Amino acid sequence: MYLLSVTLTNFKTHRDRNFEFQLGTNAICGVNGAGKTSILEAIAWTLFNHRGSYKQEDLIRNGSGSAQARVAFVSSYDSRTYEVERCTSRGYTIFDPQLGERLNYSRIKDEIEPWLQQHLGVPVGTDLGQLFANTIGVPQGTFTADFLLSPEKRKPIFDGVLKVEEYRRVHKESNTLRRYAEGQVELLKVQLQQYDEQLQAWEGLDERHAAIGQEIAQGERQLTSLQQNLDQLQRSRQSLVAQGQKIQALQQQQQQLTLQLEAKQQARQLIEQACGRSQQATELCQTHGAAYRGYVAIETTLKALNQQNQQRQQLLQQQQTQQRSLDQQATAMARLQVQLEQRDQLQQQISTLAAACKQQKALEQQRLELGQQQQALTQLKMRLQSLQEHLGRLRQESVQTKQSLDKLDILQNSVEQIPALEQQQQRWQQQLSRIEAAQQFEQELQQLVASHRNDSSAYDQQAASALESLGELQQSLPLLSSDVLEQLKGAISTGQTLSQTTLAALESILADLSAQVDLPQLQKQLKTGQADLTKAYGNRAKLANREPLQLRLSELGAQQQRLQTEMTEIEQQLSQSEVVNQQLQQLEAELKALGDPNGRRQVLEEQLQAMAQVETEYGRLRGQRQTLEAALATLTKQIDDFADVEVELAKQQQLRQDSQAGYLLYVQNEKDAQKLEQLTADLAAAAQVVAELTQQQETLVTELGQLAVDFDPEALQLLEKQYGELKSQCDRIAGSLPQQRKLQTELSSQLESLRHVAEKRDQAHVDVKQKERVKRFINFARKAYKEAGPRITERYVQGISREADRLFRELLNRPNVALEWTRDYEILVQEGGNTRRFLNLSGGEQMCAALAVRLALLKVLADIDIAFFDEPTTNMDRPRRESLAEAIGRLKAFKQLFVISHDDTFEKVTENVIVVERED
Q: How many angstroms separate the CA atoms of 622 and 333, rounded?
């Protein structure tokens, strides 16, 4: 894998730049602040998802809305060229130039990072940001810092690089998997016990299912016999019912015919009445037909006269418009005549203003120069205000950074409690894992305490009885030694005390044990402890930001000092603004006193130039006036042709009013008269329908009489009674069968369920054996992970040490030296018979040794053939700088190296030089 180019758009100090790279060593040179490190940061942000301690807004150039970086590279996976673009607002875009299409990847964790890991040539799951920060692109000034730390501080850094912690984390996290496997085995055993309990009712259900089947078969046979008898009765019953229904249908048909006949007779009467009205309307239309036709003719004449009257009104309006235009032209011509008379007066005024215009021009030039000075001072004032705001932001950020550091100091105590919290968490987990044994022990201890309590009570009674017997013995035998009696009493009292002490000790142990077997309480404590531990881990992660915050605080102090110096210089320049303002006010007063002679002369000259246009306009208006007068005369003649229209219109309106009454009578009766012919035909058809309905009614009465003679209602009632009794018996038997079938189905379902339970029981036996094998495998895997971490790490260290030894000799060009990277991540250099630690090496040797180890990490842990060096010659004199440059130039194990430098050291040893210039 190697890089081809990077394109930056509004990224930090770069507005729009493109940098091309070559194989071998690429020297990126330029003055301080030109943005050399920004190129490295853009590549890290785009390809490795690493932006250091910067915030997202810190990547955006001032005044821009978003920042964008586009990196083209050749893949280690398929040797093809790809372009990866990242924007602060739009996110990632991956482009395949050879196919000319965009890859459909958008989610960083799930899609982008796995794709980058594959094409960059690093193992899946590698933290790209950590790989870049600790190996590929070590930040400026920290290249040798990790190797100068104490072993305790070096360990977490390189453990993370070598992924040592991953084996421990897998071993620790797999503990939950172990508990889960054990829980699965126990769960299956409980299920087996439940399956056995469920299968106890199988035999009784099977017998009951067989008895229900026999009852259902007997009921079905009886139902079949009754159904045959019911079908014979049904056929006889249907014959009589059909005859009765036919009689009833004929009776209904007779009623309908009667109603239809009455309706048709009423309709015939209505048609007769309508024929009479139509005959009267026809006679009225014949009487007033002449008046109707005259009225229609008058309407046509009036329409034509109204059109002529509208034309006359239009001509009158045109005549008025032409007359108004003539009046307006006369007014305009008078105004133009007055302007022409002022021409000589304008020329005299222009000559008078010549001297004042010259003086105004000189004053305006002076004002322009002072205005430019004032504008420059205004810009300085705005710059001062911007610097003040920037200084305020820097001070605010300094306060926030100090507050963050103070908060991190507060978190230190929480982080120091992590070992104690981890031990407590482990104790609770051990208690949970042993809770069953503890519960059994508690039960046995409770039985022991109860037994001991009963024995102690009996012993107290026996001791009291013995003490009483000893008292009686002492009274009956006065010569008996009192010392012996006291010893016996003391022995009995000691036995009582010992019994009570033992009982108290057992009860105390039982009380302590009750807390240890309280599963909800232990789970609650474990959950609370886990939350505290997670919070402490988060605080430890936050403490990792302490050093970047301290560096940022130092940078903020330096920036504030630079801004303060620049503000002092600007304030000195702004002290001249008062003098410029006074001079500008004096010039403004002089210009105001002149009264703008240039403007007045320009107005006069424009007026004088406009005189030619005035003469042209005056001639045009005079010609236009003649045309308007001719058009007005034509309109007057046309209006005279329509002089008699109004008289004729009034005459025709009077004639229309005289014919209106007859016209209205004709119109009102015209529709009724037109219906006469149709009504006559409808009347004849209605009479024919009435005759036909009368004939149908007589035929229906005859047929109904014949059917009524053959029908017997009593026979139908007897059949209905017999049919009802049989139907009731069938319904009773049919109604009981569904319940029996339902019960049979339920029993079958229960039996089937029990068969499934038996199958599950058999499968559970198989699953228990499988789960137990899985549990044994998980325990074996956890043990393997626990033991594999140190061994694999040791192999990694040995391989890296061998590769670093070869690179170290190549960098120094001295074959008699040897480098060893030890198990505690310390660098030892052997030359001849002497062995030196990293602290005892010279500055150049330390840089080469650190460089060799970091490059060896890249070669062993990842298939990446590129590396970045940001100012590797910092704090070196020229001979050491040149020596290191030559050493880096001799490296042949990497396809591509990038060296950032502010001097010309690396320009001498490489042909691929990229010069970065500062942008305004």
A: 8
Counting DSSP H helices and E strands in the chain, the numbers are 22, 13
Which single residue is written with the structure tokens 């130092």?
A: 554
Could you tell me which residues are beta bridge partners of residue 103? 94
Burial class (CB in 10 A: 0-12, 13-18, 19+), 379: exposed
Q: What is the CA radius of gyration of the chain?
A: 59
Distance CA 413, CA 539 (A): 10
Q: How far apart are CA 48 and CA 131, in angstroms?
A: 8
pLDDT of residue 205 exceeding 60, the answer is: yes
Confidence of residue 480 (pLDDT cuts 50, 70, 90): very low
| In the predicted structure, residue 657 carries a pLDDT above the cut 50 | yes
The pLDDT tens digits of the residues spanning 594-648 come to 778 787 778 777 777 777 777 777 778 778 878 877 887 887 777 777 777 777 7
DSSP secondary structure of 336-359:
HHHHHTTHHHHHHHHHHTHHHHHH
Phi, psi of 151 (to 5 degrees): -55, -35
- H or E stretch covering 4: strand 2-11
Backbone φ and ψ of 99, nearest 5°: -90, -15
pLDDT over 70 at 498, yes or no? no
- Is 0.70 surpassed by the pTM of this model? no
Considering only CA atoms, which of 146, 198, 174, 176 is closest in space to residue 838? 146
Q: How far apart are the first and last CA of the chain?
A: 35
Q: State which of 4-18, 223-237, 693-707 shows the largest mean pLDDT.
A: 4-18
pLDDT in tens, 537-552: 677 777 777 777 788 8
- Beta bridge pairs of residue 60: 11
Least confident of 498-512, 517-531, 555-569, 809-823: 498-512
Cα separation of 237 and 724, whole Å? 11
DSSP label at residue 2:
E
Higher-confidence position of 843 and 767: 767
pLDDT band, very low/low/confident/very high, at 863 (cuts 50, 70, 90): low
Distance CA 73, CA 374 (A): 53
Judge whether 428 and 527 are in contact, CB under 8 Å: no
Give the span between the Cα atoms of 37 and 868, in whole angstroms: 10
| CB-based contact 329:624 (threshold 8 Å) | yes
Q: Are 597 and 356 within 8 A, CB to CB?
A: yes
pLDDT mean over 22-49? 88
Query: Residue 466 above 70 pLDDT?
Result: no
285-314 tens-digit pLDDT: 778 777 777 778 888 887 887 887 788 778
Q: What φ, ψ does residue 664 adopt, rounded to 5°? A: -65, -40
In degrees and rounded to multiples of 5, residue 713 shows phi and psi of: -65, -30
Contact 899, 21 (CB under 8 A): no
Q: Rounded to an integer, what distance in angstroms lies between the CA atom of residue 242 and that of residue 226?
A: 24
Cα atoms found within 13 Å of the Cα of residue 724, Cβ hemisphere only: 6
Q: Could you write out the DSSP letters of every residue in 256-301?
A: HHHHHHHHHHHHHHHHHHHHHHHHHHHHHHHHTHHHHHHHHHHHHH
173 burial level (CB within 10 Å; 0-12, 13-18, 19+): exposed
Neighbours of 644 (CB within 10 A): 9
Quote the tokens at residue 716: 């139908």
DSSP states of 110-178 as a string?
IIIHHHHHHHHT--TT--HHHHIIIIISPPTT-TTTGGGS-HHHHHHHHHHHHTHHHHHHHHHHHHHHH
**309, 148, 155, 172: which is closest to 793 by C-alpha?**
155
pLDDT (tens digit, 9 = 90+) per residue, 814-860? Answer: 888 899 999 888 999 998 778 899 888 887 788 888 888 888 887 77
- CB-CB contact of 8 with 42 (8 Å): yes
